[in-house]
Specification:
Strand content: 15-25%
CATH superfamily of the largest domain: GAF domain
CATH topology of the largest domain: Beta-Lactamase
Helix content: 40-55%
Structural class: alpha+beta
CATH class of the largest domain: Alpha Beta
Shape: elongated
CATH architecture of the largest domain: 2-Layer Sandwich
Largest sheet: 7 strands, antiparallel
Number of strands: 20
């Protein structure tokens, strides 16, 4: 019976050892005297320096002390001693997982559990790849807070993620035969950037056939024409191409080391993630560059247009002033009566048309200046009540001819404004002119104003005219934008009044808004900031 029991115990132990050998974790059992009694080969692989001692039933504390002496743990002596004390305390009262650096660069997680008989079970897991990949992702996510560029962070993340010596990001040059390094990480620091030929290098493979290439060992032997690999002692290589929005390969990322690397799905996923992120980043940069170039081209075109309009306005005003002046002389008979009475009428038409054309040219010049930001405000205290009365007087003849009634609704004590009086007058006259132009005979126009220390100063011009459709609002605020309707076609104008008015109001720090309904009139509201209101001083 004893022989059978011994045989059964040996069989059970052999089965247990076989089972322990099959798990991908390091397993060790310390008995109630805290001596190492059982372990698998994975556990032993964490301690190649202790291969000659594992069979000697070392106590746990002795195992830790010998590990220190033989350089199992990473860090300087002081750090290792402190870590050892923590390790011993945690072993005596195990509570949860702990992490530990080994001198060979591996990062392990240790889980211990005290059994009812006083023995202790230890499970060691190599989490180096997981730790590296998490740190690589942290570098990518946190690159802005660290002050590094995205491309530099991508190169560093590749090096950290694979624990390798060299990594980088390249772009494919237009000739398709060379690539240029955009980011290079070498031995834990940014490396030199340079351009190199693809032919004969492992990098060429990511452009020739497979977008992802992995050479786990002897990469320098596989590519003997690549002297750079031989010079630095490269052993393993992996690379992944990234694409533009048209699906073309425009560059690649790579990671190289001076020791072999085993393939892992997690590692391949990390390469793909970083390569795709770099591709999107470069596409974003290219889009931003295209937008900047388009913006610069548009601004240059706008400046050229403004300069042309300003130059033409100046060129046209000189002969136009002469036409107006001579027509006034002829109409007034300054140098004697005209030979035919109808000539006098013609001279009046010439003068009227000339003044209208001069007004349009002045508007074009002002719009050009406003677009170029060259209108200057000459600010002074402005009596708003007097300003409104003056504008109504100037527009009165046009209103009478159109059969439109003008009304003014001003409070008795309207404060003054600190503003450019000529430009404010231009604003109100433009709004009143538009209201007269688009209000049929029998209609009315009301001008009102008010001030509030919090809300600011407000002018409103409300008419009972034809109104504006909602879909036309944006168009009429653009230079030369007009809405085609029968009433507007009967009136003169180049579509510059509202855009110019809006620019002049904004120069004062204010806003212009329109509320309108087809067939029910339009209300134009000018709001100026409260800082432009001059407080009324009450005599004491």
């Amino acid at each position: 019976m004893t022989g059978r029991s011994d045989d059964q115990a040996a069989l059970t132990q052999a089965q247990l050892l076989a089972a322990l050998e099959s798990v991908p974790y390091g397993f060790a059992l310390f008995d109630s005297d805290d001596r190492l009694t059982l372990w698998n080969s994975t556990y032993a692989s964490f301690f190649p320096q202790l291969a000659d001692l594992l069979d000697t039933r070392l106590r746990f504390e002795e195992l830790v002390r010998v590990s220190i002496e033989r350089g199992v743990y990473a860090g300087d002596r002081e750090e290792i001693e402190a870590s050892a004390e923590t390790r011993l305390a945690a072993h005596r009262a195990p509570e949860g997982p702990r992490e530990l650096w080994l001198a060979d660069g591996r990062y392990v997680q240790i889980v211990e559990r005290r059994m009812s008989d006083g023995s202790t079970v230890c499970v060691w897991t190599d989490i180096t790849d997981l730790w590296r990949h998490e740190n690589a992702l942290a570098i990518i996510v946190g690159h802005r807070s660290s002050g590094s560029s995205f491309l530099q962070a991508a190169g560093q993340a590749l090096a950290v993620g694979f624990g390798c010596r060299w990594a980088g990001v390249t772009e494919l040059l237009p000739d398709g035969r060379q690539v240029r390094l955009l980011s290079h990480w070498s031995d834990g620091a940014p490396g030199n950037l340079f351009t190199y030929e693809l032919a004969g290098t492992p990098c060429a493979a990511v452009y020739d056939d497979r977008p992802y290439c992995f050479f786990p060992n002897r990469v320098a032997d596989l590519f003997p024409d690549d002297r750079f690999l031989a010079d630095i002692g490269a052993v393993s290589y992996q690379g992944k191409a990234f694409l533009d929005d048209a699906g073309r390969r425009i560059g690649h990322v790579f990671a190289m080391d001076d020791k072999p690397h085993a393939h892992s799905d997690r590692g391949e996923q990390l390469v793909h993630l970083i390569a795709n992120s770099v591709g999107m980043e470069l596409q974003r940069r290219q889009a931003e560059q295209a937008l900047r170039e388009a913006k610069e081209a548009a601004e240059q075109a706008s400046r050229a247009k403004g300069e042309f309009l300003a130059n033409m306005s100046h060129e046209l005003r000189t002969p136009l002033n002469a036409i107006i002046g001579f027509s006034e002389i002829m109409r007034g008979g300054v140098l004697g009566p005209l030979g035919n009475a109808q000539y006098r009428e013609y001279a009046g038409h010439i003068c009227q048309s000339g003044n209208h054309l001069l007004s349009l040219i002045n508007d074009i010049l002002d719009v050009s200046k406003a677009g170029a930001g060259k209108i200057e405000l000459f600010e002074e205290p402005v009596d708003c009540a007097v300003l409104v009365d003056c504008c109504l007087n100037l527009i009165e003849n046009s209103a009478v001819r159109g059969g439109v009634t003008l009304h003014s609704e001003l409070p008795p004590a309207l404060p003054r404004l600190f503003a450019d009086e000529r430009r404010l007058k231009q604003v109100l006259i433009n709004l009143l002119s538009n209201a007269v132009k688009f209000t049929p005979s029998g209609g009315s126009i009301t001008v009102s104003a008010g001030a509030d220390p919090q809300q600011g100063f407000v002018f409103t011009v409300a008419d009972t005219g034809i109104g504006i459709a909602a879909e036309d609002m944006e168009q009429i605020m653009q230079p030369f934008g007009q809405v085609d309707c029968s009433l507007s076609r009967k009136s003169d104008g180049a579509g510059l009044g509202l855009p110019l008015t809006k620019s002049l109001v904004e120069l004062h720090g204010g806003t212009l808004s329109l509320e309108s309904k087809v067939g029910a009139g339009t209300t134009a509201t000018v709001r100026l900031p409260a800082r432009r209101i001059i407080p009324t001083v009450v005599a004491g």
